[in-house]
Predict the structure.
Amino acid sequence: MSNEINSFSLAVSDAEIADLKTRLAQTRWPDSDPAGDWSRGVPLDYLRGLAAYWADGFDWRKAEAALNRLPQFTTEIDGQVFHFAHLKSRHSGAFPLVLCHGWPGSFVEFAGIAEALANPDDPAEAFDVIIPSLPGFGYSKPLSCAGWGMPESTRAYATIMERLGYARYGAHGSDIGAGIAGHLASYFPDRLTGVHVASDQQTLVHAGVYLPLPADLSDKEKAELDAIKAGLRDGDGYMRQQQGKPQTLAYGLADSPVGQLAWIAEKFREWTDPKKALPDQAVERDALLTNIALYWFTNSGGSSAQFYWETAHAKTGWTAPSGVPTGWAVFNTHPLMRRIMDAENKIAHWTEFTSGGHFPAMEQPKLLVEDIRKFFRRLR
């Protein structure tokens, strides 16, 4: 097996950009939207406007150039190509930190905070930043075979860090990325100094399904949790589809940019700061479209969905036990969050923010960067 690491840069062709614009212009839209709001999905008028901006206002070349300012590479592990960004700090002795994205994110999620983490004014706060792309996501594709789930991806991330020469490092993640970071600590406790997790109220919903709840929850607390779960229940269709029949979904996402746009924009509307009415108010519009455009140009809508199938059908779950120090940054917090996720107050670093949501690196980058710095100060 080759350990070769190859330089990489994004280079979408003019023909691909022209094809996107043609497809957007030729979209066959639904002929009705009875509700006209978000209660049944993405509203027709909103999506028309966002698609029009994607076609005529969004500048992919500008976004591409910004992303290419991050040094990027590929390497092959067990037959699968992995893409990753690797920004070395200008400060000597910087601490290596792997940033782990989830769905429907990408390495774009962390592009806006990489420089702040790598090159702060204080050299003691500096990180070497590594941002791998999950298998099937972005340029970590095509999928070489079935079986690329949480354990396999975790071990691949560890291999990337090993090939880069990092024997000890920290990890940060949210969504799937939180699972990857936690599994790194579980599988390689001698390498991980700490794991920093970003979370939001979505975690409470999944906790009620996948994790044992505290035995002493009051009836009032149980009712609050049930209300949160009920409020988000209509939004879990994406998970059932991706866990059950991701290949069927892939055909629509591969053929229709508006389909891909709606599939991701809906999640950004539901999972970002609820005080923001629209997804492109919670996340800057061009950043949102850069992430979605990456899915489109790499044709990774369907392949990324395979990760959910793999995890749903694996013997291992989303979480893994570890004795490695763990820190939590909770955005759009709720009083039940720590009560359920850290009932015995064993997590030494626990920070709660009333703002933000599921994508803090894009929604509240300064808050996230500072919390990462604070957590790792004692673990370098």
Summary: The beta strands are 5-8, 72-77, 80-87, 95-100, 127-132, 169-174, 192-199, 326-331, 349-353. Residues 6 and 222 are 52 Å apart (CA to CA). DSSP finds 18 helices and nine strands in the chain.
